[in-house]
Queue: 2 jobs
Job 1
Amino acid sequence: MLDFHPRSYFKMVSKLAVAILSLASLASAHYTIPSLITDGAASAEWQYVRKTNNFNSQAPVTDVTSADFRCYTSETGATASTATVAAGSTIGLQANGPMYHNGVINVYMAKAPSDVSTWDGSGNVWFKVYEIPAVTDGGSTITFPGSNIQSFNFKVPQNLPSGQYLVRTEHIALHSASSFGGAQFYISCAQINVTGGGSGSPGPLVSIPGVYTGNEPGILINIYYPVPTSYIQPGPAVWSG
Ligand SMILES: *[C@@H]1O[C@H](CO)[C@@H](O)[C@H](O)[C@H]1NC(C)=O
Ligand SMILES: [Cu+2]
């Protein structure tokens, strides 16, 4: 007697489907940047960082003119807790896994007019506080110190005025950036309350979106061939305070 069990057949097929699906999601598993590092310790995910639309999909932003290019929260509408940190101290950001795509990092800050938790970061208010560019040597090699790391640290500028700020991180993945819109931006915004600050005037100031067109030589770039002889980091100069 032929003993055919449709149920076990279905089970086997669905197991296979699950396996294929998880392979597919592995291949497209990018990353998010959900944790703020203070005093050398990473916070819980999305505690001080606004939960981004891609908290599940981990998909990047590719339109540098979209509203989501700022904090990527149009769907979550998220706000976060605000971490109090001293001016001059070291803070950092941590991704949910290695930021493995070849690319570069920028961190921008903007001072909230009052309560940062209800502020959207609009206006010509952003300045750069940190960057990890690509490294070139005149055409032999290009390397990406900002890739394959899970976290990085930088100093809150000593002369930054006290107050509440958004801290926006972007990891710009350049592995398919040779056509317009091909660069992938992994973005998140943290909320901090800076104490013991100074009287510096951060700048140059830019708006986000607005800071890029997508045609910048550090965004629209073929990183493979010919090997770039130099690399121009997108955005304004770092304000060191
Ligand atoms: C920011 O820090 C100041 C000084 O410690 C404190 O008085 C204030 O409550 C803090 N604000 C927030 C939102 O954490
Ligand atoms: Cu990816």
Note: The longest helix spans residues 6-27.
Job 2
Amino acid sequence: MHWPLLLALEAAWAGLGQATQHYPAMWGHYDVCKSQVYSDEGLTWDYMACQPEAADMTKYLRVALEPTNITCGDPAETYCALENPYMCNNECDASTKELAHPPELMFDFEGRNPTTFWQSTSWRKYPKPLLVNITLSWNKTIELTDDIVITFESGRPEQMVLEKSLDYGRTWLPYQFYATDCLDAFTMEPRTAQDLTQHTLLDVICTEEYSRGYVWKYDKTVRFEIKDRLALFAGPRLHNMASLYGQLDTTKNLRDFFTITDLRIKLLRPATGATMVDENNLSRYFYAISDIKVQGRCKCNLHANSCVFDKEKLVCECEHNTTGPDCGRCKRSYQGRVWSPGSYLPIPKGTANICVPNNIGPVNCECFGHSNRCSYIELLNTVICVSCKHNTRGQHCQLCKLGYYRNTSVELDDENVCIACNCDPFGSESERCNATGFCKCKSGTTGKHCSECLPGYLWDSGCKSQVCDDELLRCQNGGVCLSNLRCQCTVGFSGVLCEKPHCESEAAGCGGPDSARNTSCPSSAHLLLLLLALATASCWPAAL
Ligand SMILES: *[C@@H]1O[C@H](CO)[C@@H](O)[C@H](O)[C@H]1NC(C)=O
Ligand SMILES: *[C@@H]1O[C@H](CO)[C@@H](O)[C@H](O)[C@H]1NC(C)=O
Ligand SMILES: *[C@@H]1O[C@H](CO)[C@@H](O)[C@H](O)[C@H]1NC(C)=O
Ligand SMILES: *[C@@H]1O[C@H](CO)[C@@H](O)[C@H](O)[C@H]1NC(C)=O
Ligand SMILES: *[C@@H]1O[C@H](CO)[C@@H](O)[C@H](O)[C@H]1NC(C)=O
Ligand SMILES: *[C@@H]1O[C@H](CO)[C@@H](O)[C@H](O)[C@H]1NC(C)=O
Ligand SMILES: *[C@@H]1O[C@H](CO)[C@@H](O)[C@H](O)[C@H]1NC(C)=O
Ligand SMILES: *[C@@H]1O[C@H](CO)[C@@H](O)[C@H](O)[C@H]1NC(C)=O
């Protein structure tokens, strides 16, 4: 099926009623993507930002109910009126078309008499809560342009939450909470959309406005106020669209707030009309929805002026050489510069930001003067600089390569923006240094480049724990320092620094505790006398 949304538009305007007539030009700009103009070169195209018309989005959704068997009529049931338990003429029987209340009836055309509606089973399992999730999925990003309006027959729920998803139902965020008593139900202070300001526009509020007063039989709607929020920027009659568009262009949070792929209505407690639930007649309590209005447009990133319903799915008809369901990419051979959405500014035509052919060369090739060559990476849909010079790296040569750090006192395009870390290859953990040029030192090493030793360490391809050193002559009694790691003692001496004269035996005190050793061994003056005894020395440390 190929179904331009424009066809649906007429019905949508009709459905909107009087309020809409104030805003005929509401989204009037940006309805064409290009037009032919005469210029010096003759007839050429002038490209503009563009977007599809707003339309009734309920025609294109999928609805899912949880639990799946929550719809009434299987088995058949008779329901009583909420306000009058003696009025029990509402029959639900799924096997009889006239008496069935399937979910589709939430989206059919209303205005007929009697109204048609979806209805849940009754609250048979009271006091177990009667919980229903109604999930509406578009499988397409859409932008809401008007209030979401849900019409309940037989009382509005006493507690419900409206949720949205921006990622096809993977994650959900609350849009608005509804309760007869917000504090009690959700521990939130009750507020209304009218309380919001430009600064609190994105607040998620709990409102009591649409839950109380079942006695007002004709007050059936629950609303999520899109227009009140838009009006905070565009003025009460949405006349100052320039201001709103300016905000939408620059504020991602704001754009995202009005953007959805799915909606979920979480029904948590049906209308009871009283503080007490009449346990003897639970046939009075159920949910019934006759209509859900969702007005919006396909999100096409200002690159399409129509959206089609093709193979059960909404797709933007992308212009400006863009492609993808939301026109979120440049076409294969039009990737000469990075894709970007169109812009609403300057009003009224905006900026198209068209995708340009690949062979145009280094357009948008922004490398801060460290390269003049770029390459398109299709997987990431982005253009990156190739062969960054001057020790830079990164998509735009905006970073210093490994082993260099940024000189913050010069601009990014300076040839000397990256300074060598010069980390000592032996003394450092890596080539990397921190933002002020300090290398990460191995233990025992210090200095900006890790080329110096801490006290107690000696340089030897890095700092080694210092045992001896020939210059300082630390090995005593003629010992020789080997690789700074140990003293090779001359015959007759032992000890780390060859400080111990050789001894006859353990019993004489050599190798024993220090206290005994110092006094019981001969002094170095008697060393030579002991030379002859060497061969049979019993306390010569084996390790040396
Ligand atoms: C409704 O959805 C929520 C997830 O948001 C889930 O936890 C809950 O069980 C669902 N309720 C029903 C009745 O399936
Ligand atoms: C719906 O199905 C669940 C699980 O199969 C069952 O426990 C429950 O009673 C059913 N509810 C109704 C209203 O039939
Ligand atoms: C509910 O009340 C009506 C009117 O009194 C009565 O006809 C019906 O049987 C009651 N249902 C139950 C389940 O008690
Ligand atoms: C959603 O659309 C994608 C294509 O964009 C398709 O592959 C997928 O099957 C669709 N999912 C559903 C649930 O229709
Ligand atoms: C792609 O853009 C060029 C202008 O750069 C335009 O002439 C051409 O019609 C566009 N092609 C498509 C398929 O939109
Ligand atoms: C950073 O650049 C400034 C200006 O060229 C220069 O004076 C300074 O010495 C540089 N810093 C380093 C650590 O090289
Ligand atoms: C870099 O390391 C040195 C030494 O550890 C430290 O004094 C300095 O604050 C560090 N600089 C930054 C920007 O982290
Ligand atoms: C033994 O000699 C060592 C090194 O000469 C010295 O550090 C130590 O205090 C002496 N011990 C005694 C008990 O005199």
Note: The mean pLDDT is 82.
